[in-house]
Design goal:
The protein has 330 residues and is α+β, with helices and mostly antiparallel strands. The chain has 2 domains: 129 residues, Gcn5-related N-acetyltransferase (GNAT) (Aminopeptidase), CATH 3.40.630; 161 residues, 3-Layer(aba) Sandwich (Aminopeptidase). 32% of the residues lie in helices and 30% in strands. It contains 9 helices and 12 strands. Strands 1-2-3-4-5-12-6-11-10-9-8-7 form a 12-stranded mixed beta sheet, with helices on both faces. A hairpin with a 5-residue loop joins strand 8 and strand 9. It is elongated. The protein starts with 14 loop residues before the first strand and ends with a strand.
């Protein structure tokens, strides 16, 4: 849906209107810093710095807003010619039928007036009219007010994940576990591996990217994409842990490097092996990752006590716990 289809006045100096990068970006950055400054992770702080920097580029920002108006879709709420509310939205990179809502922020002096509801509703209508079949967002677990708001708007919880970060380069000891073989995933493993992850981690490893069988199935195009990623410095590797006595999957991990400012790990362990396989699997993943100067980041299900103990032992620190929420659009 265009801004016009929402019957909004792009020149309005009061109430809801679409984002105008040329005049709103600096105010949005300041609002995010005010509302989320204490809870922003590394990427969030980087996004605020980028917005602040862009807001000072003058003609470049004017050009960006003129030739690429969809670079940042969203809405602001204006009171007395000031931005007091903001929401950002866009189609997910890996699934154009899914839209993401983020940065729902309202100035503390203007809360409990229905502004957050109006902003989120406008973003949902934009997504729906653009062909979305589902809308996703994240909310801090302890932000009960926002959680209740999204539930009232029809969202439901999908998963609760804690983001862990590790910045040290110390390589962990090799924790071996009798009866378990940890090895790289092979082409003929993909079906069992995908079924294993789908059963134990149905929401996927990232709220931005749902599980997709095509990302696991070997194919010419997937090999070609992997080759292209290699030449630009990106890499994705999968490993599995097998129960020697049965040949069944006991665990798996994925290493992604070069895609962002941090390396990413994700690991899954069968409940039967919880508390025994956590350290060997995580140690194996970190040893395969090697000595790299960047932050290592893991989004792992919250309140998994054996995994949390292993993460802390290997130098990871919990950064934030977010609830992933979703609303289906019929």
């Amino acid at each position: 849906m265009s801004a016009g289809a929402l019957h909004l006045n792009a020149d309005s100096n009061q109430g809801l209107r679409p984002v105008d990068l040329r005049r709103d970006l600096s105010s949005i950055a300041a609002l995010m810093e005010l509302c989320f400054g204490d809870t922003l992770d590394y990427s969030g702080r980087g996004a605020v710095r980028e917005m602040e920097s862009l807001s000072r580029t003058g003609p470049l920002l004017w050009l960006l807003g003129s030739v690429a108006p969809n670079w940042q879709l969203g809405f602001v709420w204006i009171e007395d010619v000031k931005v007091v509310g903001n929401v950002s939205t866009q189609a997910a990179e890996f699934d154009r039928r899914a839209w993401l809502i983020a940065n729902v922020a309202v100035h503390p002096d203007h809360r409990r007036k229905g502004i957050a509801t109006a902003l989120t509703d406008a973003a949902m209508r934009l997504a729906e009219s653009s062909g979305a079949r589902r809308v996703l967002l994240q909310v801090h677990r302890h932000n009960t007010g926002a959680h209740d708001l999204y539930r009232a708007l029809g969202f439901h919880d999908v998963a609760t994940r804690t983001t862990w970060e590790r910045t040290g380069r110390r390589e962990p000891l090799d924790f071996s576990l009798p009866g378990i073989e940890i090895r790289p995933s092979r082409r003929d493993d993909w079906q069992n591996e995908f079924a294993f992850v789908r059963e134990l981690r149905p929401a996927g490893f990232s709220w931005l990217k749902p599980l997709d069988e095509n990302d696991w199935r070997p194919s010419f195009w997937r090999s070609l994409r992997s080759l292209a990623d290699f030449f630009i410095g990106n890499d994705s590797r999968r490993w599995i842990a097998l129960d020697d006595s049965t040949g069944a999957l006991a665990g798996a991990f994925v290493i992604e490097t070069g895609y962002a400012s941090a390396d990413h790990l994700a690991f899954v362990i069968h409940p039967q092996w919880s508390g025994r396989l956590d350290r060997p699997l995580l140690a194996s993943a970190l040893r395969r990752l090697g000595h790299r100067p960047w932050t290592v980041r893991i989004d792992h299900p919250a309140d998994d006590e054996p995994a949390e103990a292993a993460l802390k032992e290997f130098g990871f620190q919990p950064m934030q716990t977010l609830v992933w929420m979703q609303k289906e659009i019929s």
